[in-house]
Structure prediction request, 649 residues.
Amino acid sequence: MLRFAARRLIGMIAVLFAISVIVFLIFNVIPNSDPAARIAGRNANPTLIARVSADLGLDRPLPVQYLTMMKQIFTGELTSYATDQNVADQIWRGLPATLSLTIGAAVLWMALAIWFGYLSAVRAGGFTDRALTILALVGISMPVFWLAAILLYFLSFKAQLFPTGSYVPLTENPVQWAYHLILPWFTLAVLYVGFYSRVLRSNMLDSMNEDYVRTARAKGISERQVRIRHVLRNSMIPIVTLFGLDFGAVVGGGAILTETVFNINGVGLYAGQAIGKLDLPPLMAVTMFGAFFIVLFNTIVDILYAVLDPRIRLGEAAPV
Amino acid sequence: MSPILTVRDLQVSFRTDDGVVHAVDGVSFEVSPGEVVAVVGESGSGKSVTAQTLIGLTRAPNSKITGSVMFEGADLIELPDDQFRAVRGEHIAMVFQDPMTSLNPVYRVGDQIAEMIRAHRDVSKAEALSRSVDLLRSVGIPNPERRVRDYPHEFSGGMRQRVMIAMALALDPEVLIADEPTTALDVTIQAQILRLLDNLNRDRNLSVVLITHDLGVVAELADRVVVMYGGQIVEDATLDEIFYNPQHPYTWGLLGSIARLDEPRPERLTQIVGQPPSLLNPPTGCRFAARCKYAFDKCTQPPALEARLGDATHLDRCWLTPAEKLESR
Prediction:
């Protein structure tokens, strides 16, 4: 267990290091990305640009700039080039909205995916299965921004059933919180429901032919118990892996589109604005934040794996 | 003694993409209390399908089952699924071929045995688990108190088969169906499992339907032998009759295929030349005729399973006269 934790920690550091270097380098080779020129404004003379450059430390060699930025990230002193706001504060402020959106969507997508996948597998080849297959494919193929726009137009604007986005903090009004989040939850979940229910269906169909399922039937337990305790239980293992990766990715920035369309002031929206302004510090911080979550959930999944499948020992779990 | 299990004209066919497969075609036999009946045949002879039909595992949307399996006054074939479930496990239990894959890898063995007990008896989890410990001890698993909490992958193949047997015995069934219980095991372990089955048969007066292709196993355990070929029974006799007075050329072939240690080693192991018939369109006459050295014109007609020796306990399905058989064998 100690070795596992140590290896995971080293892996996380390596991943974060690699990602930060890549983001930093990409930013520096993007044409027209010199923040000093942007801040100095239109028609700025070279001396002004040079002064702004010196203020931001952009005149120093790249490795030094990189190290300074890393130091600022870990001390929480990183400030945006564009707005002069503290990046850590901004991310911290966006976190409740992002977590509300992503956790709610994750619960929804897991519940629906298990339900649909189970139904599809049990009725394989039948009408329910075919209908769910089509539904799943539609869900997978629909772009998030399009679905969100359609939902907003018909359900919020035309039918006025739902509010048109924005976020109400949970502590302020739980009912409004949930009411405002229904459409975003649904939008974010649709893709994953489609995808996971397909994976679960095929896993279950594979498991149904396993010898231990025949053994379970021979015990004289009901078909429902055979399916839930033996088929579904064993088919959940790959789903949990997928979930760990996807959930980490969604928390760490995968919800950018949903947050933008529904105007939810979360980390994703913040990242989206930073991209628009080519603002390196928030981009760097959000990317690291996302990578951290992905590695973190990956680790949690590996621990869960050992719980779900007793044949796997943590020390031998798949390397990072 | 009246039989505990009577199979009459059992037919099992499956609809597949290629057509209808008649896996079992008119199988009839009886099992008396405390009797070990071995069903012998090569792969594809229908022996496993017969066994699984006895416990209702071949019921599926694409299968068709006719005939009757009488058990304690009820016809299992006619029984609705939920009533069959009460019989399955409680009165007729099954041990499968491959103990490595027949236990669910994610549950502790004790829980898997307890699941079986609790499916039929209204007992607490703790009671079911303590019963599991007794069962594991009774099949010779050392340290059962500790082992009951282990997962299947922590057991060796032989030990897992013991777990499977313990599970099958959990509710004191009258009939145990063992589908090639030793095929996946090492030879030394096979002997242990056979001895265990033999003891259970004696001590509990347990009836056993033993599915196997291993005549060594048959000689060890069986009281009666049913030889299957191409979905049909070709010979049905007591153990001694099968070994010392076999009537069907296929049985001769099976017996001839045993590698002998007490004779000079042959160049090649003896085999029955050819392939078993396709069960999609089985031949109209004797199903073994195409591979039979002694086939003659009459073999294009299907022979019936009859007592051709005049001994009611020895049935066979071959047109040759007993005298011809004695000469050819």
Q: What stands out?
A: Chain B has a mean pLDDT of 90. Residues 122 and 128 of chain B are 9 Å apart (CA to CA). Chain B touches chain A at residues 55, 57, 81-82, 85-90, 93-94, 96, 98, 101-106, 115-116, 119-120, 151, 153, 164, 167 (CB under 8 Å). The radius of gyration of chain B is 21 Å.
